[in-house]
């Protein structure tokens, strides 16, 4: 009997193209990227061949996500073996030091606030001096009317887990600032999402 490990996310299929456009704009020609919460692995499988100067290190705490990512990325020479990593783990055991980019999509609203705290704390510790953290997902932005879709999504998330929810950008910025990171660039993405670029 053959077993397939491929998980599939329709949202990932939709957003991977616009996300790659942003990566091409903000990343230098080469470097080492650590992906936090890689999920199915479809982002890694889409980005790595399009960014041949980059080494891509996917990570996730769920073994089935690591298996799926390995399956999606089979044969891609610039994708490293997926790493078991919980973003809240102090010191990010096993993660490479001095990475040039950290990419994290759709985590901080679908996890307790500790995930955002861990992401900012360890990104500050693991990014090279000019390294960039990219986060992707929905946010509530002060002074901007919330999109109805994001309000509904927030309510749905909180029903699934009261510790989850669409985050206020100001709260994320405060957490980043606590660790010496600041918002460098903002890209408005389809479906009321933002890609945010953070650095020192
Ligand atoms: C909604 S999925 C997003 C997956 C992928 N980034 C995407 O955009 O399609 C959320 C991912 O966060 C991961 N995750 C949940 N808690 C986490 C944690 N504490 N540390 C790292 N990843 C976590 C889950 O295993 C899952 O793969």
From TrEMBL:
It holds the Pfam family DUF938. The keyword Methyltransferase applies. One of its GO terms (molecular function) is methyltransferase activity. Keywords: Methyltransferase, Transferase. One of its GO terms (biological process) is methylation. This is Class I SAM-dependent methyltransferase. The lineage of its organism: Bacteria, Pseudomonadati, Pseudomonadota, Betaproteobacteria, Burkholderiales.
């Amino acid at each position: 009997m053959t077993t397939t490990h491929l998980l599939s996310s329709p949202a990932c299929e939709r957003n991977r193209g616009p996300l790659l456009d942003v990566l091409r704009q903000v990343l230098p020609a080469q470097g080492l990227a650590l992906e936090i919460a890689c999920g199915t692995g479809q982002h890694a499988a889409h980005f790595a061949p399009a960014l041949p100067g980059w080494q891509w290190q996917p990570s996730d705490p769920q073994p089935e996500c690591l298996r799926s990512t390995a399956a999606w990325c089979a044969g891609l020479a610039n994708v490293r073996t997926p790493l078991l990593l919980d973003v809240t783990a102090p010191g990010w055991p096993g993660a490479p030091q001095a990475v040039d980019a950290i990419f994290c999509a759709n985590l901080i609203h679908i996890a307790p606030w500790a995930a955002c705290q861990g992401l900012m704390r360890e990104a500050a510790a693991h990014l090279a001096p000019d390294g960039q953290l990219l986060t992707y997902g929905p946010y509530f932005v002060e002074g901007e009317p919330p999109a109805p879709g994001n309000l509904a999504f927030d309510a749905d998330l909180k029903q699934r887990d009261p510790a989850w929810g669409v985050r206020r950008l100001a709260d994320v910025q405060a957490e980043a600032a606590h660790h010496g990171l600041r918002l460098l660039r903002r890209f408005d993405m389809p479906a009321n999402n933002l890609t945010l670029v953070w650095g020192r």
